[in-house]
């Protein structure tokens, strides 16, 4: 069955392939397009290199990275699911059309109308040879179209459903801004200097925001990840994801409850009696010497 088009979910593709370079992107796209039109890929490196428009050396370098998207025997589970869904839908429409046509043409009045049309055509064929060429009648609506109502679809097919309007961009400005902040934390350039692994950073960040991850948590995880890194900038924004997930798990833990214990109550001063005793002794001694000084003893 001919398949002139294939579904390609841009956000999912960019998120899954953000680590690919340009050559690997081209090879992977050509392979999945061949897979879609033929139903599979050959398990032969020479043929795969030809499909990917690569030399043997180029394919040898890209093979391990591209092969990670496929199962054993170069099977692709997601494309297989999409193919099965499309084939099932096409079969349903074909069967519905066949039944509608069979039902329409099996009616007696339809057969009678066909026979009458053939008879009338034979009777008026000779008279129509000398008739002047008919001229088009002016349209009542003035727009050049035919104002007569159209007959319903003889195959009974449903009216086509208009495609839903697509947003101008699936990536929010918040995701773009946060991706730029993460690139600055990682120490990578912007624009033409951006490493290949960072080209789809905004798509991955949009996925995080869709999960409910906040900007503050993402930045905390990214800074903690870079504080432990000693071998240069990461190859892509996905490097930060484990640290961000750990930060989210840490913040989700309940705060331990602190129970305030009552302070010990001291009943009286344990040294009070001794201090009091010493005070009384000094007073008595002072009185004794005062009495002797005055001649009293």
Determine the N-to-C terminus distance: 137 Å
DSSP helical segment count: 11
Please give the radius of gyration in angstroms.
43 Å
The main sheet comes to: none
Order of helices and strands: HHHHHHHHHHH
Mean pLDDT: 75
Q: Give the percentage of residues in beta strands.
A: under 5%
Shape: elongated
Q: What class would the helix/strand composition place it in?
A: mainly alpha
Question: Assembly state here?
Answer: single chain
Uncertain parts: none
Would you write up a description of this structure?
Residues 116-125, 136-154 have a biased composition (Basic and acidic residues). This is DUF1376 domain-containing protein. It holds the Pfam family DUF1376. The structure is a single chain. The protein has 297 residues and is an all-alpha fold. Among the domains are: 1-113, no CATH class; 173-252. 56% of the residues lie in helices and 0% in strands.
Structure keywords:
297 residues, mainly alpha, DUF1376 domain-containing protein, DUF1376
Summary?
By secondary structure, the protein is mainly alpha-helical.
List the topology elements:
Layout: H1 10-16, H2 22-38, H3 45-51, H4 56-67, H5 77-105, H6 108-129, H7 173-186, H8 201-210, H9 215-228, H10 241-252, H11 272-293
Helix pairs in contact: 1-8, 2-4, 7-8, 7-9, 9-10
InterPro entries: DUF1376 (IPR010781)
Biased composition (Basic and acidic residues): 116-125, 136-154
Biased composition (Pro residues): 155-165
